[in-house]
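yo

u said u wanted the structure for the complex thing, so here. seqs first:
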Amino acid sequence: SAVISQKPSRDICQRGTSLTIQCQVDSQVTMMFWYRQQPGQSLTLIATANQGSEATYESGFVIDKFPISRPNLTFSTLTVSNMSPEDSSIYLCSAGAAGGGTDTQYFGPGTRLTVL
Amino acid sequence: GENVEQHPSTLSVQEGDSAVIKCTYSDSASNYFPWYKQELGKGPQLIIDIRSNVGEKKDQRIAVTLNKTAKHFSLHITETQPEDSAVYFCAASSGAAGNKLTFGGGTRVLVKP
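structre next:
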């Protein structure tokens, strides 16, 4: 399995500002993903973080709002830009199994974001 | 794209009884079906998974069954304990879709002592 950490664990932000969330995996992984979980809801995929190339976004999510970086095989960041109260959610990163496993995904503890 | 439906949305059981959660999926190309347990304030934890070449898988008190023809899969928890209380999510993915997980809506399980 992969051990995943996220920073910050929670934050309270003002409308119009941006927050960058970091995701660190304890081993090199092929696949990394970012999800959003709105209060009391299920998980929705934001994008696939591709190492060395631009992220692949799902319908309804755009790069200008959620820019993603993935500089290497163990680290990724998600920025929530120009935040509004509707962005208040839990943001989760996940990673595939170490050694290039393609389907099993493990999740980080999440970043709980509140936008005032 | 894939659509995953999960039932029931809430489930209350007496300690020691069994709990069953059912999911259906729409994309016949899906070939990987994990189950996650999410406790309050934590990220989802993978508890069991099944691939499309297997009909059933068991790990101690939990088991998952898959019916590819009917496109449904189920999670069974036997001898439930209070620490089984959590939200459970099913999901589906396929390699053809980049291994992206599509989640069901979740089931809130409460085990009453």
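The two ends of chain B are 41 Å apart (CA to CA). The CA atoms of residues 25 and 71 of chain B lie 6 Å apart.
cya
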